[in-house]
């Protein structure tokens, strides 16, 4: 894991945006995995400002709530169109988001995995992290080899996400999420975490043991994962200063 710590969310998000922009300009038909939540919003704003050519890009989203009408403002479908896609020239047919209203969920999940393979696999997967260490919606104790499937949210995640819905009762309990195995197959992962309430999960993911109790810790086994943090999210890392030192002393050719 490469840990990149910036004083502000803006600087961290802009560096992550430069990395994605560089990839899309080198490979116009790139396959990009996307995440939702409040964390990637500044990244998406930075990407929109760069006015990239998305016309040949294919995207796969990590997850979706089950049972909300597709046009509900809190579906990840609505989130992605509102906060990224409608500001780009991406083709609707190249956008893939799990269907939370699929009639046969296991078959839909298997088909989603197949679509990723047919697209050539994910080049860069963007990830946030839950306060309990979840990535996508892979809650603690998810199999580290899991594939796209249905999951039941923890009470903690329902409470964390209630702010988008108005009350905990309105948050769906079930979701479809790429598995940790699916995420591990991406050629590169970019995990973003900002704010003090992510500091514990990040410390566990980066410096703790690899354990299904902190699903993001599986990324220690991924060859190309960059973790973009602000100072607050890095607050519980024992080696924060080492990570800053590494970033400040990169050879020019390695800089983003
Ligand atoms: C949800 C999403 C995750 C996201 C997490 C954190 O659970 N499924 O992909 O990382 O929320 O959200 P936020 O970025 O708003 O803290």
Describe the structure.
By secondary structure, the protein is an alpha/beta fold. It contains eight helices and ten strands. The strands form two sheets. The protein has a seven-stranded parallel sheet, sandwiched between helices. A three-stranded antiparallel sheet has the order 4-8-7. The longest helix is centred in the first third of the chain and has 18 residues, at 9-26. The protein is globular and about 50 Å long. The two termini are 16 Å apart.
Write a compact overview of the structure shown.
With 256 residues, this protein is an alpha/beta fold. It is built from eight helices and ten strands.
Topology diagram in text:
Blueprint (H helix, E strand, L loop, with lengths): L1 E5 L2 H18 L4 E4 L6 H9 L8 E4 L1 E3 L10 H8 L11 E2 L8 H14 L5 E4 L21 E4 L2 H7 L12 E4 L2 H5 L3 E6 L5 H9 L17 E6 L9 H9 L8
Parallel strand pairs: 1-10, 2-3, 2-6, 3-5, 6-9, 9-10
Antiparallel strand pairs: 4-8, 7-8
Helix pairs in contact: 1-2
The structure holds 2-amino-2-deoxy-6-O-phosphono-alpha-D-glucopyranose.
Beta-strand proportion? 15-25%
Number of domains: 1
Low-confidence blocks of residues: none
Q: In sequence order, what are the helices and strands, one letter per element?
A: EHEHEEHEHEEHEHEHEH
Separation, N- and C-terminal Cα atoms: 16 Å
Number of strands: 10
């Amino acid at each position: 894991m490469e840990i990149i710590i910036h004083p502000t969310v803006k600087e961290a998000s802009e560096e992550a945006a430069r990395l994605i922009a560089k990839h899309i300009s080198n490979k116009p038909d790139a396959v990009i995995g996307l995440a939702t939540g409040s964390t990637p919003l500044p990244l998406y704003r930075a990407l929109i400002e760069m006015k990239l050519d998305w016309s040949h890009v294919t995207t796969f989203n990590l997850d979706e709530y089950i049972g909300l009408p597709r046009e509900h403002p809190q579906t990840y479908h609505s989130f992605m169109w509102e906060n990224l896609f409608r500001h780009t020239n991406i083709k609707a047919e190249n956008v893939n988001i799990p269907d939370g209203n699929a009639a046969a969920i296991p078959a839909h999940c298997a088909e989603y995995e197949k679509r990723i393979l047919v697209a050539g696999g994910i080049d860069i997967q963007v990830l946030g992290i839950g306060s309990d260490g979840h990535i996508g919606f892979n809650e603690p104790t998810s199999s580290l080899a899991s594939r796209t499937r249905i999951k039941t949210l923890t009470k903690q995640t329902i409470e964390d996400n209630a702010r988008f819905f108005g009350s905990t009762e309105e948050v769906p309990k079930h979701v479809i999420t790429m598995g940790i195995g699916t995420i591990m197959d991406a050629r590169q992962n970019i995990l973003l975490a900002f704010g003090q309430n992510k500091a514990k999960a990040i410390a566990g993911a980066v410096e703790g043991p690899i354990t299904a109790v902190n699903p993001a810790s599986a990324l220690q086994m991924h060859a190309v994962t960059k973790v973009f943090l602000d100072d607050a999210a890095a607050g519980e890392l024992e080696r924060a200063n080492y990570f800053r030192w590494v970033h400040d002393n990169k050879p020019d050719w390695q800089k983003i």
